[in-house]
């Protein structure tokens, strides 16, 4: 699903296994997969980590509900924090392909490893979660994880759905949780 175009990526940056994406924008690189999401979901949600967004995307191919195929340039589209124009598109059937602009970067591997080290202690990389549950509130100077931790929610459960004890904006399926329990935990 992910294709690289317009530049000669080095072998590390080229590693973007299908269905898994890590994005970075400062020098248009796409290091190997650290975000456990799909490239379609990444474009739809403008997924980002470490302050970077999907600026590395070059084109987005979509199919509309009436079967039309369109190629859109990211530079013509307005993205925001976890926002994309696709969220308001009434006739979107699916994002079917992305191309990325990749440039070689000698520091990419080092930064990728540093991000991964940080993620290993600050977030959950092995448990069954869907990543952050809520967007961070804009301009309030506080993060959802901090708010929930301060509210004493870490470890709070509905059935087998649990607010993580590591990162309070990650909700874990600790065993046999189902969507009803997850939604109930989210609604509380
Ligand atoms: N930054 C990080 O560290 C991490 C980020 N993430 C998450 O990555 C998410 C993306 O995850 P992912 O599991 O891929 O996405 P999801 O399956 O959660 O889908 C997210 C949204 O994108 C839509 N979507 C997904 N694929 C397509 C497609 N091909 N065409 C059109 N719409 C699509 C989904 O629509 P529908 O519901 O109809 O399928 C849904 O509304 C972000 O929401 C982010 O929270 C997760 C872990 C870590
Ligand atoms: C995981 C996702 O993306 C993540 C992305 O990986 C990280 C890193 O850039 O920054 C956002 O999380 P975040 O704002 O919680 O950042 P983190 O780096 O995880 O945590 C930042 C800080 O919050 C504080 N923190 C976090 C969790 C917690 O329970 N308690 C707490 O106090 C800690 O000080 C920690 O150092 C994205 N989430 C959103 C909703 O913007 C996702 O979207 O699914």
Q: Keywords for this structure?
A:
cell shape, 2 domains, disordered N terminus, globular, three-stranded antiparallel sheet, Uridine Diphospho-n-acetylenolpyruvylglucosamine Reductase, domain 3, binds uridine-diphosphate-2(N-acetylglucosaminyl) butyric acid, 7 strands, single chain, Uridine Diphospho-n-acetylenolpyruvylglucosamine Reductase, domain 1, binds NADPH dihydro-nicotinamide-adenine-dinucleotide phosphate, 188 residues, 22% helix, alpha+beta, four-stranded mixed sheet
How are the SSEs ordered, and which strands pair?
Blueprint: E1 2-5, H1 11-14, H2 39-45, E2 57-64, E3 69-73, E4 92-101, H3 108-122, H4 144-150, E5 157-158, E6 161-163, E7 171-173, H5 179-187
Parallel strand pairs: 1-4
Antiparallel strand pairs: 2-3, 2-4, 5-6, 6-7
The chain binds NADPH dihydro-nicotinamide-adenine-dinucleotide phosphate (NDP) and uridine-diphosphate-2(N-acetylglucosaminyl) butyric acid.
Organism: Nelumbo nucifera
EC number: 1.3.1.98
Cofactor: FAD
């Amino acid at each position: 699903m992910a294709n690289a175009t317009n530049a000669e990526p080095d072998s590390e940056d080229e590693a973007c296994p299908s269905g898994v994406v890590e994005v970075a924008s400062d020098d248009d690189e796409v290091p190997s997969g650290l975000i456990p999401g799909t490239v379609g979901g990444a474009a739809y949600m403008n997924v980002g980590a470490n302050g970077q967004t999907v600026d590395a995307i070059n084109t987005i191919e979509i199919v509309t509900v009436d079967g039309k195929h369109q190629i859109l340039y990211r530079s013509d589209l307005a993205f925001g924090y976890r926002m994309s124009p696709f969220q308001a598109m009434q006739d979107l059937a699916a994002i079917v392909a992305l191309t990325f602009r990749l440039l070689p970067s000698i520091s990419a591997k080092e930064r990728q490893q540093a991000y991964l080290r940080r993620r290993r202690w600050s977030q959950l990389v092995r448990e069954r979660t869907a990543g952050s549950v809520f967007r961070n509130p804009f301009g309030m100077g506080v993060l959802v994880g901090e708010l929930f931790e301060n509210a004493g929610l870490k470890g709070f459960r509905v059935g087998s759905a649990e607010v993580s004890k590591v990162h309070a904006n990650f909700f874990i399926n600790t065993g046999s949780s189902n969507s009803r329990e997850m939604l109930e935990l989210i609604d509380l």
